[in-house]
């Protein structure tokens, strides 16, 4: 029984450690007060546009992309985040959203992982 408790504690400690490291790893891209996964929820209005290259991009989506896009590394981290992935975002399609919004100051040519912002 004691061994079992110890094992459980080890497991819990391990999980906490891994999630802490994961958090540190992604910290910074979007500033100290938020994470890419948190920011991904703000792109909820972009859900359909991020899955279908022909879908029209809503004003509210563009407004959010414009805001997050002030920090391209944050935008990329958001588009490639697990949250976005789980929401069905296709990163290859998602990186075209700033262009489809006709954002004037978008970071053209910025590398988002394997993708390049058009
Ligand atoms: C988008 O439109 C193009 C041209 O009409 C078409 O070839 C493509 O298959 C469409 N993509 C999707 C995801 O519907």
UniProtKB/TrEMBL annotation:
<dbReference type="GO" id="GO:0005504">
    <property type="term" value="F:fatty acid binding"/>
</dbReference>
<feature type="domain" description="Bifunctional inhibitor/plant lipid transfer protein/seed storage helical">
    <location>
        <begin position="30"/>
        <end position="112"/>
    </location>
</feature>
<dbReference type="InterPro" id="IPR016140">
    <property type="entry name" value="Bifunc_inhib/LTP/seed_store"/>
</dbReference>
<dbReference type="InterPro" id="IPR036312">
    <property type="entry name" value="Bifun_inhib/LTP/seed_sf"/>
</dbReference>
<dbReference type="InterPro" id="IPR039265">
    <property type="entry name" value="DIR1-like"/>
</dbReference>
<protein>
    <recommendedName>
        <fullName>Bifunctional inhibitor/plant lipid transfer protein/seed storage helical domain-containing protein</fullName>
    </recommendedName>
</protein>
<keyword id="KW-0732">Signal</keyword>
<dbReference type="Pfam" id="PF00234">
    <property type="entry name" value="Tryp_alpha_amyl"/>
</dbReference>
<feature type="signal peptide">
    <location>
        <begin position="1"/>
        <end position="26"/>
    </location>
</feature>
<dbReference type="GO" id="GO:0009627">
    <property type="term" value="P:systemic acquired resistance"/>
</dbReference>
């Amino acid at each position: 029984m004691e061994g079992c408790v110890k094992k459980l504690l080890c497991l819990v400690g391990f999980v906490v450690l891994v999630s802490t490291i994961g958090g540190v790893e992604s910290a910074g891209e979007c500033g100290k007060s938020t994470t890419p996964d948190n920011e991904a929820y703000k792109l909820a209005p972009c859900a359909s546009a991020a899955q279908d290259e022909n879908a029209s991009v809503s004003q509210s989506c563009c407004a959010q992309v414009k805001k997050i896009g002030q920090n391209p590394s944050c935008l990329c981290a958001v588009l490639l985040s697990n949250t976005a992935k789980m929401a069905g975002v296709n990163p290859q399609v998602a990186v075209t959203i700033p262009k489809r919004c006709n954002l004037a100051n978008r970071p053209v040519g910025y590398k988002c992982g394997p993708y390049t912002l058009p």
